[in-house]
Amino acid sequence: MTSQTFAEKYRPKTFADIKGQEQAVEIAKKFVGEFNLGKITKSQKKALVLHGAPGTGKTTLAHVIALETKSEIFELNASDLRNKSKLQETLKPAIEQQSLMSNNKIILIDEVDGISGTDRGGITELLYLIEGTTYPVILTANDIWSKKLAPLRKKADLAQLKEINYQTIKDVLFNVLRKENLFLNQNIITKIAVNAKGDIRAALNDLQTVSKMKEPQLLELDERNKETDIFNALKIIFKGKPSNEILRTFDSVNMQLDEIMLWVEENIPAEYSGQELAKAYDALSRADVFKGRIYKQQYWRFLVYENILLSYGICASKKNIKTGFTSYKRPTRILKIWLNNQRTAKKKTITEKYARLVHVGKKRALNEFPIIKQIIKSNENIQKELRLTEEEIEYINRPVEINYF
Ligand SMILES: Nc1ncnc2c1ncn2[C@@H]1O[C@H](COP(=O)(O)OP(=O)(O)OP(=O)(O)O)[C@@H](O)[C@H]1O
Ligand SMILES: [Mg+2]
Q1: What is the pLDDT of residue 157?
Q2: SS3 sequence, 59-87?
Q3: Structural domain ending residue among the three candidates 297, 330, 363
Q4: Residue 334 CB neighbours (<10 A)
Q5: Range of the structural domain that residue 68 is part of
Q6: CB 19 near ligand 1, within 6 Å
């Protein structure tokens, strides 16, 4: 048996293999096609951002475009963008040199939102290089609407990869089962597909696990929850034995370390008490010191220490391994209040500006916010007249997330 995951083994190789993303595929084809034909006019963008939820095919689409256009692919990741000199070292020669292997080349910058908001140098340099590129640049991002990517949004075309509906996921799963010569009950397949919530990778991973089970009909799949990972990670840190593996606990959590810190902080008292509690808070406060230094000095190496303190440091604060179940909480106090304030603050300032301009009461305008939002969204002149800030425009344009289930 091979050790390859289904997700890797069945990664699409052609446009036709990519399911449920017709629109994004069309945009991407057109973008690279026109670029390679030298049809780019001044107004045309030199970069394309493929954005969308995890496991919807962003990285795959980028690679398939390269395969289908017989292009060499030159790949960079967010850590290459951490500083200007590093970027110059890697990306610049790639952009300026002729490809050795073939005539076409595509520059892929995968997971560009991994770059931190304070990492201004990286983004600025990236934009500058996009300006000068003679090859199409494709970037991928989960959340293109984050503030730090605002400058990139202006310089790039956007193509959204949708969360795949469960029927399509089912088709993909059936196809894999057929090729693997496996049989599974329909209900289980449906369950996996629905549970994946648009994430094909997650569905394929579940399928692989389930197909190895002796009695899959007994299966009770947990509701797939984007926060499962952090809950598991907390369990490992708080209950497990300190070891080298502990250091990698947060690697698989789809969350920035700063946010992870909020979760750890919130849940320390749920697990530790007495001396353990004091030790854990000590590790936390030292992690926080490094975080401060990272922001002030942009010294990324400190991320390593922040991570060590948050994982090993917190884990080793206890005397003995813990058993039993602890119900961990979201960092409601801090995170939710903050997020909510951010949201309503923008809604409020936008409404105030609008109410002043059209001479209606603030309260009435607030009640009619959904309509007002549409009006503002559809007309850039109004946005200018209202003198909306960058953040307010971002708020107006952020699409309401659609949940298929
Ligand atoms: N639209 C799709 N059609 C068929 N298979 C897909 C599709 N999207 C994803 N997959 C499967 O899921 C795997 C993961 O996809 P991919 O790595 O492209 O996701 P991604 O959008 O880049 O996710 P992330 O945001 O986590 O990087 C692929 O290897 C492939 O097997
Ligand atoms: Mg990817």
Answers
A1: 94
A2: HHHHHHHHHHCCEEEEEEEHHHHCCHHHH
A3: 330
A4: 12
A5: 21-161
A6: yes
Element (H, E) at 189: helix 186-195
Of the bound ligands, which one is closest to the alpha carbon of residue 199? Answer: 1
Give the pLDDT confidence of 220-278 residue by residue, as tens digits.
Answer: 554 444 445 788 899 999 999 999 889 888 887 877 788 889 899 999 999 999 999 99
CATH number at 170 reads 1.10.8
Question: How far away, in angstroms, is 102 Cα from ligand 1 center?
Answer: 26
Q: Which ligand is nearest to the CA of 61?
A: 1
Is residue 405 one of the residues assigned to a domain? no
- The pLDDT tens digits for 287-297 are 999 888 877 77
pLDDT at 102: 57
So what's the pLDDT on residue 395?
A: 83
Coil vs helix vs strand at 272:
coil
Burial class (CB in 10 A: 0-12, 13-18, 19+), 28: buried
User: What CATH number should be reported for the domain holding residue 256?
Assistant: 1.20.272
Residues of the chain with pLDDT under 50: 1, 222-227, 401-405
First-last CA distance in the chain: 35
Give pTM, 2 decimals: 0.58
DSSP string, 273-319: -HHHHHHHHHHHHHHHHHHHHHHHH--TTHHHHHHHIIIIIHHTTSS
Distance 79 CA to ligand 2 centre (A): 15
Q: Is 318 in the pocket of ligand 1 (CB under 6 A)?
A: no
